[in-house]
Amino acid sequence: MHLDASAEHELLLSVARGDEKSFKQLVDIYWWPVYYNILTLTKSTVTAQEFTQDIFLKIWQKRALLAEVDNFMNYVFVAGKNHVISAMRKKVLDTNAALPDDLVETNNSPGLAMDYKETWDAILKVIDSMPKKQQQVMRMSRIEGLSNKEIAERTGLSPSAVKWHIVAGLNTIRIFLATRNREFLLILLSAAVLLY
């Protein structure tokens, strides 16, 4: 079923007002496009199913925002991409200097899984090659997930010095990722590891 712009807008307004029947209709229409979009990003049917459910749950929780949406397909695809990036960030930051096993196991592409692991290991080596203080700050920020304020308190550096070390370190890693010429990994890993 495909809705024209006017019918879609009316449906979104109805959902925004809290109409559960309209929300069910919205899910029925857009579930599979969202699912297949997530599947192309995650390469895992289980993960795609879970993420699609999460995305529609969030849409319902923030349904009031739908009143301002002009194109729901674009809106939900952006929401899907952001959800995948957020999940990747959590998986990477939950590691102890290693790519999570579940990230590799849930990915149906052995080649891509190997790329993730190789790239993550290489990023850690890049961090290890940084000046000692910058290396310390980068590990605290991007691996341990500490805030700039927490890093400043632990290291005795000023907040501006912490920020400088992070910016310099991120530039080094971005250049490294770009030179590996792996666009998909650059998008996901830069979002997950670098833009936290």
TrEMBL record:
InterPro entries: RNA_pol_sigma-70-like, RNA_pol_sigma-70_dom, RNA_pol_sigma70_r4_t2, RNA_pol_sigma_r2, RNA_pol_sigma_r3/r4-like, WH-like_DNA-bd_sf. GO terms for molecular function: DNA binding; sigma factor activity. SUPFAM superfamilies: Sigma2 domain of RNA polymerase sigma factors (SSF88946), Sigma3 and sigma4 domains of RNA polymerase sigma factors (SSF88659). Keywords: Sigma factor, Transcription, Transcription regulation. The keyword Disulfide bond does not apply. It holds the Pfam family Sigma70_r4_2. It comes from the Bacteria. Residues 121-169 form the RNA polymerase sigma factor 70 region 4 type domain. GO terms for biological process: DNA-templated transcription initiation. Belongs to the sigma-70 factor family. ECF subfamily. This is RNA polymerase sigma-70 factor.
